[in-house]
Amino acid sequence: MSSDNHSQPSIINLDGMYENYFLDYASYVILERAIPTIEDGLKPVQRRILHAMNEINDGRFHKVANIIGQTMQFHPHGDAAIGDALVKLGQRDFLIDQQGNWGNIETGDSASAPRYIEARLSKFALEVAFNKHITEWQLSYDGRKKEPINLPMKFPLLLAQGVEGIAVGLSTRILPHNFCELIKASIKVLKEKNFVIYPDFQTGGLMDISEYQWGERGGKVKVRAKIEKEDKNTLVIREIPFSTTTTSLIDSILKANDKGKINIKKITDNTAKNVELVIDLASGVSPELTIEALYAFTNCEMSISTNACVIVDNKPMFLDVKEILKRSTDHTKSLIRAELLIEERDLLDKLHFASLEKIFIENRVYHEIEEAETWEEVLSIIDTEMRRYIAEPDEELAPGDNRLQLARPFIEDDILRLTEIKIKKISKFNKFKADEAIQNLRDELDKVRFNLTHLVEYCISYFEYLLKKYGDQFPRRTEISTFADIQVQQVVANNAKLYVNYKEGFIGSGLKKDTFIRECSDIDDVIVFLSNGKFMVTRIGEKVFVGKDILYADIWQKGDERTTYHMAYSDGASGKTRVKRFQVKAITRDREYDLTKGTKGSRVLYFSAQPNGESEIIKVTLSASSRARKKVFDFDFGDLDIKGRRSMGNILTKYTVRKIEYKSTGGSTLESLKVYMDNATGQLNMEERGRFVGEFEGDDQIIVIYENGSYELLDFDPNLILEISKIHTVKRFDPEEIWNVVYYEGEKKWSLVKRFQIETSTTSQRFQFISEHRSSKLLVVTDCSESELTYQDSSKEEQKILLSEFIDVKGWKALGNKLDEGKIKVVSVEKIESEEENLKTGDTVELDPDKGQSELF
User: How many CB atoms lie within 10 A of CB 801?
Assistant: First the structure.
């Protein structure tokens, strides 16, 4: 055979094939798998699960394995994908009632096998998600069944459940929101009012929404575990951050402990029905700093990014939750309108036939067909006879024409229905009941038409109905708060030790044979001063060379405004000795700085550091050969101003100095710290944010009075964060202060007064100064030696007493004197201050009329 007769091979052009195939695949994943539609807030697999459950719904539980099998009629993927989606849908607690072990989102435990667990649609789902009359349908993937394009969801389910999905080239993450808040926001949308909605998580915890940005792409929220201080050695976690489990949380805590970031003895998981992780602290470890370290180094604090992507008109769109809620509310309104129109049509049909039926029976039209010989003749007779009593909708009635004008034309189907009326019904016909039934239908029709005319009001009443019926099941679980920024260097546990080799010029944590300075962390900075007048700040390491002849080395904190350095140095050029006081607040790490004038031969004669700006007196001895009349004299650094490190300093003497010796330390020359507590975060600060706590210096302590009637002494720490929601009073502690307390004693049901001074000295431990009965309640606390209380007694009469005359100062454990044999209502508390007390600043008492309590600000 000739080669010319061979068939030519087909040529396949690859140009553009990859692009087309990839776009087809990406579109499929986006539209059919990963991204929810805005109409019902469901992914395709979730929609098919709910549709399958509705088809087999009989009010009883079905095996999950059976539900999976039913769903596979509509879903092109395997049983595992359907089972996982069903379990996650059930764990949201909105649409599915569960029976059996469905796993635990807090512990991460998985659900039992599908053959062991059961499910059914919840009453809420049946009420808001299904109506076959207004559902649009499409053929299933194999063409055998019909499935809904979207469920007629009359609720913002997408925002209530939240969603996560990863498609090709894009992803979505919408956080869950609170049921009740969504409904209230939808009502505000209908009323055209402004609204705000924030996420709410099943796991509870704390949440900072300052960067939420309505959940749009680029927004984020910070979530925290709720950590409670049980006592000075124990912390308890009872609520965990969203997106974590108790297992992952414990793993992150143990990992941070192994790395030395935190210092704990052990962690115990007591989780049963509710989360309970008990953390035992190592001896001497601050519980407050440990809480901050847990937030800084473990999964106790998480940042969750948002990216609200949904399918709108068969295309992915990036919206914010505000726009999603508005569209959902408008969609609900259109669904409700469609339902009302269907109801109106059904009522019109019922009214139409009820009227025809009444005329047919009341006028005995059925008698006229007794002589008819054919079916066609029967229909003709009924048509003729009925038209004697009815008129078409477009027919004009003449005066005196008493025929009933119908709402729609009288057609053959109506005649056929009249022929189907049973003899039993004709025989029991009651004109009064028939008129009553017709009137009821007219009333219902008027009501439906009224609702259509006032559709917005009707939608509002629908949302209010949902809120009243189901709202109690969905309280807010996540507490909205504001998180203070955590300075990692200040909260990391001491997991290293600083050693110094002064002569050779080495610092580090591995120089165990050299001089020990202090415990520190492996991320701390070290400041080092040398005898040549130079200094630098560097990161701690195993062994770091910084320069020979080290004078001083210690841990350095950026922005330190308290540590003050004293220095005397000899200037190499002039021979004069200069003195200076300075602070080091900001530098460039690993850069060398010169504290002298920089001339050759300059050297440091004396150097010291005072942590709180204390003054210092030195003894100066001049050379015996100098011409100075006074060769030994004292100098007080307190006479110098604190300047920058670049300052040359003041001249101490022009003569040669033989030696300088330390003599004594005086008081701090710095202003006392004016400390405030942030009302949102409980963070102590010096930036005048929140309530004034007091002026602190030296070893001053803080006293905290809690709402439950206990107090606690704390060592002052400018980085301390207090539990703002539980605090009644916080201020600088004065051991001479007299505390006036009025409280209700729950067991005896009396109102009592007591006055006492703080006698304990243990810090970081709470002491209960009122009874621990669950009904006991703190009513008044003042720190003034004399206070006048105005109150309503149990008989509603107003009384007034001076607390100092009512009871003497007793111990903090004393029960107190009975004020009333019942619960009083505090009207006011007036502090009557002495002359000395009037000189104090920052101590005022205000009465909270809602709580009936005084608060110290």
Answer: 16
Cβ(332)–Cβ(340) below 8 Å? no
C-alpha angle 114/69/84, rounded to 5°? 45
The Cα diameter of the chain in Å comes to 156
| Other beta carbons less than 10 A from residue 78's beta carbon | 10
CB atoms near residue 774 (< 10 Å): 8
Q: What is the distance between the alpha carbons of residues 162 and 184, in angstroms, rounded to a whole number?
A: 18
Mean of the pLDDT values across residues 352-374? 82
**226-299: which CATH architecture?**
2-Layer Sandwich (3.30)
Averaged pLDDT of the chain: 85
Q: What is the pTM of this model?
A: 0.73
* DSSP reduced 3-state for 479: strand
> Cα–Cα distance between 623 and 641 in angstroms, integer?
28
Task: Tell me: pLDDT of 544 over 70.
Answer: yes
For helices 179-190 and 321-362, angle between their N-to-C axes, nearest 10 degrees:
70
Q: What is the Cα–Cα distance from 637 to 165, expressed in whole angstroms?
A: 66
Length of the chain measured in residues: 857
CATH 3.30.1360.40 residue ranges in the chain? 226-299
593 is catalytic: no
Average pLDDT over residues 472-482: 88
Which residue would you say has higher pLDDT here, 494 or 60? 60
- Rounded mean pLDDT of 46-56? 91
- Cα dist. 286→251, 354, 614, 704, 717 in Å? 22, 82, 27, 16, 11
Residue with the two structure tokens 């003899």: 423
Do residues 44 and 32 lie in contact, with contact meaning Cβ atoms separated by under 8 Å?
yes
**Which one-letter DSSP state was computed for residue 510?**
S
Task: Give the pLDDT score at 834.
Answer: 54
- By C-alpha distance, which of 492, 481, 487, 486 is closest to 224? 481
Distance, in Å, from the CA atom of 47 to the CA atom of 275, rounded to the nearest integer, reads 32
Residues 227 and 239: their CA atoms lie apart, in Å, by 8
Tokens coding 500 = 């110094």
3-state percent breakdown (helix, strand, coil) of the chain, nearest 5 = 30, 30, 40
The gap from C-alpha 379 to its chain's centroid, in whole angstroms, comes to 72
Catalytic residue among 116, 141, 593, 711: 116
pLDDT of residue 485: 65
